[in-house]
Amino acid sequence: MEIGARETECVALVNLGTIDLLRARYQQAADHLFKALALCREIGYRHGEAEALTRIGDICRGQGRAQRAASHLQEAVTLFREIGNRSGEAEALNSLGEALLAGGDPGDARAQHAAALSLASHVGDAYEEARAHNGLGHTCLATGDAESAGYHWSRAFALHTEIGTPEADQVRLHLVSADDDGRDG
After folding, report:
1. What pTM, to 2 d.p., does this model score?
2. How many whole angstroms from its chain centre is CA 14?
3. Consecutive H or E run containing 177
4. I need a surface site. Which of 20, 58, 115, 162 has the fewest CB within 10 A?
């Protein structure tokens, strides 16, 4: 089998794993993604390797294994950085921030989301920019800075609305909740 066909197989396996991940079918997702990871490493397809690592990290976070998630995601960040894929790096940084927050480290999580925001803004990746603002909202709230959380959630809501992603509804709920908490306090 030629290299191009094997890269296509890697992409297909990552896509299948992503679909399973979105459906919270973690074992099926892991099966596809670990196969993709092994194949990508075998053929030296670093972009596919970084994508697989990002999704594997997301699986670990979804299963409550934040430290394991952070390890996979840090490796993905490094790979994306080495190959010069700034959008991929922003995505992996956002996932790393989510894993660190889930693991109880809002300070480091905030730093990862801030780095993702800077990269995403620089390369014009509105989705990852919105995701970074959402993550910053959560980290700000976790550290007691409700005002900054509201700012970041309002930016995330505006961006998600502008690009038409379904995440806008979830972010709107954070804004309503933050607004209600502000009136109660």
Report:
1. 0.92
2. 15
3. helix 167-184
4. 162
Tell me the CB-side half-sphere exposure of residue 57, using CA atoms within 13 A: 28
Radius of gyration in angstroms for the set of CA atoms belonging to the chain, rounded to a whole number:
17
Judge contact between 146 and 178, C-beta under 8 A: yes
Task: Give, for all 185 residues of the chain, the pLDDT tens digit.
Answer: 455 899 999 999 999 999 999 999 999 999 999 999 999 999 999 999 999 999 999 999 999 999 999 999 999 999 999 999 999 999 999 999 999 999 999 999 999 999 999 999 999 999 999 999 999 999 999 999 999 999 999 999 999 999 999 999 999 998 887 766 554 54
Q: What is the DSSP letter of 124?
A: T
Strands annotated E in the chain: none
CB 50 within 8 A of CB 83: yes
Domains of the chain in start order, with CATH, are 3-184 (1.25.40.10)
Q: How far apart are the first and last CA of the chain?
A: 64
The token pair that represents 92 in the structure block: 């992996």
